[in-house]
Design brief:
- The chain is α/β, with parallel strands linked by helices and about 200 residues long.
- It starts with 7 loop residues before the first strand and ends with a strand.
- The chain is globular.
- The chain is built from 8 helices and 6 strands.
């Protein structure tokens, strides 16, 4: 935990059709499921309850469709504008995008075998994809540019990297951070890292 960065409410997009099919999305996209849309609406109700009266908050969002759809549904009760920021995009999975884990295992058996030994590094070994340092640089640049408290709509892996950088954790300590959809991760200098659910 540190006091270098402002308070954040970090939100992963709601469930998508490819989440349900267990396909790697990366920079590709698929629409929210009905559950994903409900998760977004529920998070909007939580935001309205905990930050709705504040006037010091800004909202930022990955420009990818699933994040934008989540932001639109979540922010509707608040009527807040949202600023798109490409630094909040999900990790690029390169050749793995659109594929299931079974398909990846069949096409890249040696890389897949490494996942059990080093799960964090494996996420950044996709052919043609981004490495961990790429995401770290993006997260650091985004955090450095923040001028005040913010609500951030992003993706599963980028959310973990962003929260880890805010907290001063390395990539292995990052594995202990909770994940999931339909959850708001609250980062504040006073309380550190907390999860907020409906």
């Amino acid at each position: 935990m540190n006091d270098r960065y402002p308070e954040l409410f970090v939100i992963r997009h709601g469930q998508t059709e490819w989440n349900l099919a267990r396909r790697h999305q990366g920079r590709m996209d698929s629409p929210l499921t009905e559950l994903g849309r409900q998760q977004a609406r529920d998070m909007g109700a939580v935001l309205q309850r905990i930050v709705g009266r504040r006037t010091d908050m800004n909202a930022y969002c990955s420009p990818q469709g699933r994040a934008l759809q989540t932001a639109a549904l979540s922010l509707a009760p608040l009527g807040w504008p949202v600023t798109e920021d490409a630094r909040l995009c999900e990790v690029a999975f390169g050749a793995w995008e659109g594929l299931t884990q079974t398909e990846i295992n069949a096409a890249w058996p040696a890389l897949s075998a490494m996942a059990e030994d080093d799960p964090i590094s494996w996420h950044f070994m996709s052919p043609g994809g981004e490495g961990y340092l790429d995401l770290e640089r993006r997260a650091d640049a985004f955090l450095a540019d923040l001028s005040g408290p913010a609500v951030v709509f992003t993706h599963g892996i980028l959310s973990r990297v962003l929260r880890a950088r805010w907290l001063g954790l390395n990539e292995h300590e990052m594995l202990d951070l909770p994940g999931g959809q339909g959850i708001i991760f609250h980062l504040s200098p006073q309380h550190g890292h907390r999860t907020v659910e409906k």
